[in-house]
Amino acid sequence: MLSRSKYLEKRFFVCMAELFDLHNEVSLGDRMTYMKLSNAGINSAGNNECQSQSRRSFIEMTSAGALAAVTLGGPPSIPGQTQVQWQPQSHSLDDWYDQVPGKHRLIFDSITPDGFGLALLFAANYIDANNRAYDLKDSDSAVIMVVRHKAIMFGFNHAVWDEYHSELSGEIANTIPNKTGVALAVNDANSDIYVEGVRVSNINRLDALISRGVHVAICENATRSLANTLSAKTGKSTETLFNDLRNNLVRSGHLVAAGILAVARAQEHGYALAVAM
């Protein structure tokens, strides 16, 4: 003789089978499964009762199922089916993002000289505020600055600026005036920079930030474009100039395939994004 719990379990399967017959809402495979279970130890003597109950409770059961799905975060998983959460693919080219020491991660995207000057200010503010408010050290802040597009010239060291000073300064002064109408004054990547008439102090200069642990992601596409521009001004071959630029990155500089890739990949590695306009 069936125990009460076994009896109720069997009755449940019978009712479910009847319910599926009345409402063609499930697959044939699921319907056959419930039919087999309902026939495994109980006859259909009480099926009329189930049929009437299923008609009355169909909407209630459907609503309850929807409520359960919302409450539990979704429908129950199917046995044997693994729920896979998307993860970005790892690439050896991106290993350096995880090698920058720090407990907190931030990446600055700058595409203009104005934006670069502001990024210098904000990067220093970020490190200083972490140190002051949270009692951290410089090495606890992992900061990357992306230089790309019209800010690309800031990715190279003194040797490049000494060699192509007039060309690089001319590119900036001719294309990026500030709001007062006075050209943005930049002598080299590590000299004082004036953004809209505001002097960026020495402590915020790129060399000083690099000494505090900041890394720089330098766009290869923009580097090639700059090499092409310098070629037209100097008569040197684009390839020669590109190699010259590539061999003279700033300290802690990383030549990346594209600046926008660095922006994306860094976020996949846990960096928050700040855009300096």
Report on this model:
The chain is α/β, with parallel strands linked by helices and 277 residues long. The protein is 51% helix and 12% strand. It has helices at residues 4-22, 28-39, 47-72, 96-99, 113-134, 158-175, 206-211, 220-234, 238-246, 259-268; strands spanning 104-110, 141-147, 194-195, 198-199, 215-219, 253-256, 272-276. Helix 5 links the parallel strand 1 (104-110) and strand 2 (141-147). The chain is elongated. The protein starts with a helix and ends with a strand.
List keywords for this structure.
277 residues; alpha/beta; 5-stranded parallel sheet; two-stranded antiparallel sheet; 7 strands; 12% strand; elongated
Which strand order spans the largest sheet, edge to edge or round the barrel?
A: 6-5-2-1-7
Class of secondary structure makeup: alpha/beta
Averaging pLDDT over every residue, what do you get?
77
The major β-sheet equals: 5 strands, parallel
Shape: elongated
**In DSSP terms, counting alpha (H) and pi (I) runs of 4 or more, how many helices?**
10
Radius of gyration: 33 Å
Q: Which stretches of 5+ consecutive residues score pLDDT under 50?
A: 41-46, 66-72, 178-190, 195-204
Task: Estimate percent helicity.
Answer: 40-55%
**Termini separation:** 79 Å
Tally the beta strands.
Answer: 7
Taken as a percent bin, the fraction of beta residues is 5-15%
Multimeric state of these chains?
A: single chain
